[in-house]
């Protein structure tokens, strides 16, 4: 039987992708069999280790794809009466995904700050900001972000999106969000047609 793979995740094994993310001990034990990223994620989901599954997929996806995933999840928390700053933050992150220019990356920082970090959209914007370039002001010496900062922001956006309303339905929402992330990992848009409850 052919080992399942993800089009957007080139690593043949999951373990190297887990070096700098926090996983529960049961999840770590699954790595001993040297599974592929797809097989590892499937195992996490089968065992109900959904938070670990989110953290892993956020780290395994390339920055642009993972930021898009964060945007999709964060958008589910925005009602029609959402604050303008919240809409502006997710729109800034989406602009960077569509056109990952330095100018678009820079605008995500101010957009995130304007939300006071009261919404998952702030973390979607920070995921874009931390995707590369420098964290320092443009005129200052370059301070590159750590490679795992984007994944931490993405995981934060996805996990927070699931508990913002009706937190008792979080497991159901995690599964919906993970289905979107898996679609992205397979080269899709992540728009699976499912809307999380709540």
Helical content stands at 40-55%
Shape: globular
- Taking the alpha carbons of the first and last residues, their distance comes to 39 Å
Mean pLDDT: 94
Helix-strand category? mainly alpha
* Number of strand segments: 0
- Strand content bin: under 5%
> Radius of gyration over alpha carbons?
16 Å
Low-confidence stretches: none
In sequence order, what are the helices and strands, one letter per element? HHHHHHHHH
* Total tally of structural domains: 2
Largest sheet: none
Number of helical regions: 9
Give a quick set of tags describing it:
198 residues, globular
Summarize the SSE layout with pairings:
Layout (H helix, E strand, L loop, with lengths): L24 H6 L6 H10 L3 H11 L2 H13 L8 H15 L3 H12 L6 H10 L19 H15 L6 H16 L13
Describe this structure in words.
With 198 residues, the chain is mainly α. It has 2 domains: 15-60, no CATH class; 63-162, no CATH class. It is 55% helix and 0% strand. It is built from 9 helices and no strands. It has helices at 25-30, 37-46, 50-60, 63-75, 84-98, 102-113, 120-129, 149-163, 170-185. The longest helix is centred in the C-terminal third of the chain and has 16 residues, at 170-185. It is globular. The model has no long low-confidence stretch (mean pLDDT 94).
């Amino acid at each position: 039987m052919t080992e399942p793979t993800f089009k957007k995740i080139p690593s043949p094994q999951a373990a190297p992708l887990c070096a700098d993310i926090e996983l529960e001990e049961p999840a770590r034990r699954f790595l001993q069999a040297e599974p592929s990223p797809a097989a590892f994620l499937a195992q996490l989901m089968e065992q109900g280790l959904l938070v670990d599954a989110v953290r892993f997929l956020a780290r395994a996806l390339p920055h642009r794809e993972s930021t898009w995933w964060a945007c999709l999840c964060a958008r589910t928390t925005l009602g029609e009466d959402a604050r303008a700053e919240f809409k502006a933050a997710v729109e800034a992150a989406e602009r960077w995904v569509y056109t990952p220019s330095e100018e678009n990356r820079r605008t995500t920082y101010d957009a995130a700050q304007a939300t006071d970090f009261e919404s998952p959209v702030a973390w979607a914007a920070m995921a874009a900001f931390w995707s590369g370039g420098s964290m320092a002001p443009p005129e200052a010496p370059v301070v590159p972000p750590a490679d795992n900062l984007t994944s931490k922001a993405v995981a934060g956006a996805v996990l927070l999106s699931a508990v913002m309303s009706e937190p008792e339905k979080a497991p159901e929402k995690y599964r919906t969000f993970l289905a979107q992330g898996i679609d992205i990992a397979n080269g899709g848009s992540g728009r699976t047609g499912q809307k999380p409850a709540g």
